[in-house]
Here is the input.
Amino acid sequence: MAGNSTKSRALRAGGLRRWSVVASILLTASSVACVPDQGSAVGSTGPTISSFTASTGSGTSPLTTALRWEIGAGASAAGSALLCELDVDGGSDFEISVANCDSASTRPVTVSAVGATIVTLRVSDETGARSTATTVLSVEPASADSFGITVRRNGVMSAAQSDAFDAAALRWSQVIRTGLPTGSLAIVANQCGTSAPAYNADVDDLMIDATISSIDGVGGVLGRAGPCYVRAAGGLPLYGVMQFDSADVADLVATGQFEAVVMHEMGHVLGFGTVWGPLLSGAGTSDPTFLGPVSTGAWQSIGGSGAVPVENSGGGGTADAHWRESTFNAELMTGYLDAGPNPLSVVTAASFADLGYGVDLGAADSYGLATLRRGPSAPDLRFVLEPVEPIASV
Ligand SMILES: [Zn+2]
Here is the structure.
């Protein structure tokens, strides 16, 4: 089952990649049709590339990083639209094409091939004059330790409820790929308010106590979720809790939405909106944003500009801890559950790379301009959960 879903995602990603290559060929052909091809000459004829860097230049496979570049003013033909293209595998094709690229742009990439990969940026102006720049990514073999999420069940759960936790753990471990150092955890019973039993042993890589119990009946509080202990080194969660009201869970299972809710809450336990720290800018203002470089590149790759918009309304537990609903709409990590699919976008996957996880952006769901909010939509169900904040580092 996992193999099939991974394969279908890979095929979808391949389809997108091929489409973008075709687009770049068409754009290049039309832009050079009336002038001699000036090849890949670097120098005064092409736009000036002031800088071309990767936010992270080395790491284990899959290496996810943001490629960033700046194009100097004045070197290009005045007013000409620039085409920026990236070859991210050292081959002869340019897999990523950015039409009308700004003077400063960024795109995220995941490189799995082990070794030194020369990444090339090619910038063309309307006359066909081109400049290139390169940067090198150094990718070490993948860790033998894949990322693992252990869910302890507490209280009474049906098979369907229990399966939702397994499905969510599997899905997140397709996005977050690389294992972390094994940590040790010592907690007493009910340490973080879930009635869970004591634990005193290793954790590899994240342990979650999941509880479904009666809280306040249908509506009201759906539950609470978040990391309870984070790692002293790096600050990523080691232990967290997910607690749901059994009355609400019954409704969510009946409408087929419980799995999406568990996915969303597990995202918070993994650190989304809960261990953002200085990556969150403007908290409490009308325009909070997420500053992670890989997320910023991912956001711009789906049509956004500037930094990633974070929720600015809805109060505590919703604002400053989710993507902005008015922009991201159905995306999994907004503060509101949609009736249809709630896709895990490349921006959400990227946010975990920015937190320090080893992430494969290719495992994200299809998501882009077509699914961004374009007008008013019906009110969605708000994820009304009490946030759980880390209480200690271990
Ligand atoms: Zn949430």
